[in-house]
Design brief:
This protein has 20 helices and 13 strands.
C-alpha cells in the first residue's frame, strides 16, 4: 500500500516463523487445466519429535494463468498433520504473512515451532491439518522478488543524516535499478491478489481437497476474500485477522489514519493518571521532537539480525515518525512510547533502541518480496487513489503527517517505474462472498482503522465480528481468547463463536495488569503507564462500541472492557454472552 520503504513499515504483518517437518509422501496432485503440479520434497529445515508430522512441497504454477504453457514459478507449501485427524474437518490454509511481500519465516535459518504452536488450538490439536504457504514472489518462493538494491541503499542511507528529499531520491534510484533487473526475470504484472487466488485454487486441486478453510492476517486477508469471491465453491469458512478490505481507500486516507495512530499512542498515556503526570504534553513534545531531530539528528546504535556489526542508525524527525508508526503495530509498545520521546528529547537513545532494531530488521529483511508488494499496490490499489486529494488531506495533518506527504509522492513515482496495467474496477468493490466469516480486529490497529473495518465487514452476508480493545495488529498472535474464538468458529461456522469472548478478554487483560502493577509498586523511582482496570460498559450497538474503542480523542479510549456489542453474531442475531 505504499513505497518500498513505507511498504515494509506501514502495512507490516508479523513475520511468523514456521515449524520443522518430516519428509512427506511422494504423491503429488496434477491439474492439466492449470498446468500446475505439487512436488513433495524433504523439508529444508530441522525437525523436532515434539512437533506434528509435517510434509513439505513446492507448488509449481504458471506465472501467468492465462498462459498455462508459459513460464512457471514455485511457492513453498508446508502441511502440519493433525495429532488425531478428524476426516470431517477441512484443513486450515494460512495464506502468508501479509505485507504484501512478507515472508512466513520458512527459511532454514528462520523456521521454528512458533507458527504451528500459535495456531494449534485451531488446527493440529483440534483434528484439523494446518497448511502454510509463502505466496508467489515472497520468502521461499521461486523467484523471490526482493529488491536487493533497496536493501543495500537503505543500509547506507540510514547511517547518514539525509533530508526527506534526499532520502526519496536514493530510494527512487533503488526502485529503478530493482525494476530494471527483475523485469527481465519476471512478469511483474502477474503478482497480485487475483493471481494468488488462482495459485491457491490450483493447490487445493493438487492436494485433492474438496474445500479449504482460509486464514488471512493483514494483507493476506485480502487473498482470502478474493478466493471466496472468485472460487466460492472451494471455500468452507474464512478467519480474517486484522482484515484488509478492497473497498477501503487506505492510501486515500493514509495521512489521517497515521495521525490518528500517533494520537492513540499518546492518549494511551494521557488517559492514565500516573502516566499523564509523569509525561505531560506528549503530543506537543512529539511534534517539537520531530522538528528538533530534523535539525539535529541523534545516532541510535543498534543490533539486528541482518547486520554483521553494530549499526549506527541516524534518527531524524521523519525517521522517528516511521519508527514509531511501525512500533505501534504492537500493543506492547504503547506504554513505552512516552519514555522513547523523553529519552530522545534528552539525547538518550537507549529507550528507542528496541523500536529502531525492529524497524531496521524489517527494512533490511532479504526475504521480503518488495517488488511483489509494489506490483500488488500498483495493480489493485493505486488505480483507485485520488493522489491529489490525498496530498491535500495530508497537508492538514501538520508535522506528524510530514512523512506521509513524502510517501505519497514516491508511491506515484514507483507505479510509473513499474508500468504495469491497472486492475479493473472489480478489485476496488466490496466482496460479498457467501462463505461464513469470522472477523477479528484490534481497536489500536494503526494501519487498518477499526471504524473502517466495522463498516466494510457489513458487505459479508454471513459473518461474525469481534473487536478487541487494547490490541493492535494481528490479534490472534496476541490473545488466546481470539484463538479460542477462531477454533470454535471453525468447528461450527454457522453457530455463535463469540459467546464468552468479552469475559475471556476482560480476564486476560486483568491477568496481564497484575504483574505490571506489582512491578510498578515495587519500583519507587519510576511510574508505570498502566491501563485502567477493565470496567463493564453500558449496553450499546456494535457501531457505538467500535467508535468508542477506535476514536483517538475518546475520553474512554481503550480503558474499558468491551460491552455486549463487542460481538455480533451471524445475520445480526443477538445471543447472550457468557464466560469461557
Amino acid at each position: 500500500m505504499n513505497d518500498s520503504l513505507a511498504w515494509k513499515v506501514l502495512l507490516l504483518s508479523l513475520l511468523l516463523p514456521l515449524a520443522a517437518c518430516q519428509r512427506g509422501d511422494s504423491t503429488v496432485g496434477k491439474s492439466g487445466e492449470e498446468a500446475a503440479s505439487l512436488e513433495a520434497r524433504p523439508c529444508w529445515f530441522e525437525v523436532d519429535n515434539s512437533w506434528p508430522v509435517t510434509q513439505c512441497f513446492m507448488m509449481e504454477v504458471p506465472e501467468n494463468h492465462a498462459d498455462p504453457e508459459g513460464r512457471k514459478i514455485r511457492f513453498p507449501v508446508v502441511r502440519f498433520i493433525a495429532n488425531e485427524k478428524n476426516p470431517d474437518k477441512f484443513p486450515l490454509l494460512h495464506l502468508g504473512a501479509g505485507g504484501p511481500g512478507a515472508s512466513m519465516g520458512l527459511e532454514p535459518e528462520n523456521a521454528s515451532e512458533w507458527l504451528w504452536i500459535n495456531y494449534a488450538t485451531m488446527t493440529v490439536e483440534n483434528g484439523r491439518d494446518l497448511i502454510v504457504i509463502d505466496p508467489r514472489g515472497t520468502g521461499m518462493a521461486e523467484p523471490r522478488l526482493s529488491c536487493a538494491e533497496f536493501i543495500e541503499d537503505a543500509s547506507a542511507a540510514y547511517q547518514r543524516p539525509l533530508t526527506a528529499d534526499e532520502e526519496a531520491r536514493v530510494f527512487t534510484f533503488s526502485l529503478e535499478r530493482c525494476y530494471s533487473r527483475l523485469s527481465s526475470e519476471a512478469d511483474l504484472a502477474q503478482y497480485n491478489s487475483s493471481a494468488v487466488a488462482r495459485d491457491v485454487e490450483a493447490l487445493r486441486k493438487a492436494l485433492g481437497l474438496e474445500k479449504l478453510n482460509l486464514y488471512g492476517v493483514s494483507y493476506a486477508s485480502r487473498y482470502a476474500l478474493t478466493l471466496a469471491r472468485d472460487f466460492p465453491e472451494s471455500v468452507h469458512a474464512l478467519v480474517l485477522n486484522s482484515a484488509v478490505f478492497p473497498d477501503i481507500p487506505y492510501i486515500q486516507q493514509l495521512a489521517g489514519d497515521s495521525l490518528a495512530a500517533y494520537k492513540r499512542g499518546i492518549n494511551f498515556c494521557s488517559k492514565e493518571k500516573h502516566c499523564a503526570s509523569r509525561y505531560p504534553n506528549l503530543r506537543q513534545r512529539l511534534e517539537n521532537l520531530v522538528a528538533q531531530l530534523d535539525q539535529t539528528p541523534v545516532t541510535v546504535s543498534i543490533e539486528h539480525p541482518f547486520a554483521d556489526a553494530e549499526f549506527p542508525f541516524v534518527m531524524t524527525g521523519q525517521r522517528l515518525l516511521r519508527v514509531l508508526f511501525q512500533a505501534l503495530y504492537d500493543e506492547g509498545f504503547y506504554p513505552e512510547l512516552p519514555a522513547v520521546i523523553e529519552g530522545l528529547e534528552k539525547g538518550d537513545p537507549a529507550p528507542a533502541r528496541e523500536a529502531v532494531s525492529s524497524f531496521m530488521a524489517i527494512i533490511l529483511d532479504p526475504y521480503f518480496g518488495d517488488a511483489a508488494g509494489i506490483s500488488h499496490f500498483c495493480y489493485e490499489e493505486a488505480p483507485f487513489v485520488d493522489f491529489h486529494e490525498a496530498r491535500l488531506q495530508a497537508e492538514e495533518t501538520g508535522i506528524l503527517g510530514s512523512a506521509v506527504r513524502k510517501d505519497l509522492e514516491v508511491m506515484q513515482l514507483q507505479c510509473r517505474i513499474w508500468a504495469i496495467p491497472p486492475a479493473g474496477r472489480l478489485e476496488a468493490e466490496p466482496i460479498s462472498a457467501p462463505a461464513p466469516a469470522l472477523i477479528l480486529h484490534g481497536a489500536l490497529d494503526p494501519v487498518l482503522n477499526a471504524k473502517d473495518a466495522e463498516r466494510a465487514r457489513k458487505a459479508l452476508p454471513n459473518h461474525q465480528w469481534l473487536l478487541f480493545p487494547k490490541l493492535a495488529h494481528d490479534v490472534i498472535s496476541a490473545s488466546n481468547c481470539a484463538e479460542y474464538a477462531a477454533a470454535r468458529f471453525l468447528d461450527a461456522p454457522d453457530a455463535d463463536a463469540t459467546e464468552g469472548v468479552q469475559q475471556c478478554r476482560a480476564d486476560e487483560i486483568k491477568a496481564q495488569q497484575v504483574p505490571a502493577q506489582r512491578q510498578g509498586e515495587s519500583d519507587s523511582n519510576e511510574d508505570s503507564a498502566l491501563p485502567a482496570t477493565p470496567q463493564q460498559a453500558p449496553q450499546e450497538t456494535p457501531e457505538q462500541a467500535t467508535e468508542r474503542y477506535s476514536t483517538a480523542d475518546s475520553s474512554e479510549d481503550y480503558s474499558g472492557n468491551p460491552p455486549e456489542a463487542f460481538t455480533e453474531t451471524p445475520a445480526a442475531t443477538w445471543l447472550p454472552l457468557g464466560g469461557i
